From TrEMBL:
Name listed for the protein in its UniProt record: Glutathione S-transferase
CDD domains membership: GST_C_Beta, GST_N_Beta
PROSITE patterns, alphabetized: GST_CTER (PS50405), GST_NTER (PS50404)
GST C-terminal domain boundaries: 89-208
Domain of life: Bacteria
Domain GST N-terminal: 1-83
Organism: Limoniibacter endophyticus
Length: 208
């Protein structure tokens, strides 16, 4: 399987999951700053994934899976014993999906595009930061009541996605100082061997 990724973006989440589950992936870097986006081999990325965003997972039989929340669940289900996602059809799986959707729609899509494009203006950015702060306060209360991970005692694909998205806080000016349980969770995740391996694989710094 091939994972199309860009360093420092949401494609880190499936990369972490692949490392956690010990699933080997061929990595193909995409330059998402160019128009059109191009792969490291010089191909127009829209020929792989028509919407042009990462991540995309191309299966060996040719299917192209897009949408991070789908890809992480697909990978986790290839290795059910990894514990990265509860079994399909259970309440726990629905809870996992609820968190994945929350992260995708309430966090990821508030950070991106609003805080990644200064040209959208300071008003849009202030609104986005305030909304993210409200949503992170919800995560903080949840972790305080039932952490340390989003689903309780074990690390799941939702934690990988949360780590990826909230990891953008520093350089987008989102203040995490009021969220000690969330910061504790991010710190725990950052030291996991699979997470460090995924960060190295995508070409990110693993310290500092
Ligand atoms: N709905 C997609 C959105 C993915 C997305 O926003 N990817 C960003 C990086 S985090 C990207 O590739 N942006 C470049 C672009 O949209 O052209 C998903 O959840 O997987």
């Amino acid at each position: 399987m091939k994972l199309y990724y860009a360093t420092g973006t949401c494609s880190l989440s499936p990369l972490i999951v692949a490392h956690e589950a010990a699933i080997p992936l061929e990595l193909v870097r995409v330059d998402i700053r160019t128009s059109p986006h191009v792969t490291e081999t010089g191909n127009d990325y829209s020929e792989v994934s028509p919407n042009g965003y990462v991540p995309a997972l191309v299966l060996d039989q040719g299917t192209v899976l897009t949408e991070g929340v789908t890809i992480v669940q697909y990978l986790a289900d290839l290795k059910p014993d990894s514990g990265l996602a509860p079994q399909h059809g259970t309440l726990e799986r629905a809870v996992l999906q609820s968190w994945l959707n929350f992260i995708a729609t309430e966090l990821h899509k508030m950070f991106s595009p609003w805080l990644f494009h200064p040209e959208y203006g300071t008003q849009a950015q202030e609104v986005a930061r305030a909304r993210i702060g409200e949503r992170l306060a919800h995560v903080e209360r949840h972790l305080q009541a039932g952490g340390p991970f989003l689903l309780g005692k074990t690390f799941t694909v939702a934690d990988a996605y949360l780590f990826t998205v909230v990891g953008w806080s520093d350089f987008t000016g989102v203040d995490l100082s009021g969220f000690p349980h969330l910061r504790d969770l991010l710190g725990r995740i950052r030291t996991r061997a699979a997470v460090l391996a995924a960060l190295r694989a995508e070409g990110s710094k693993t310290t500092g």
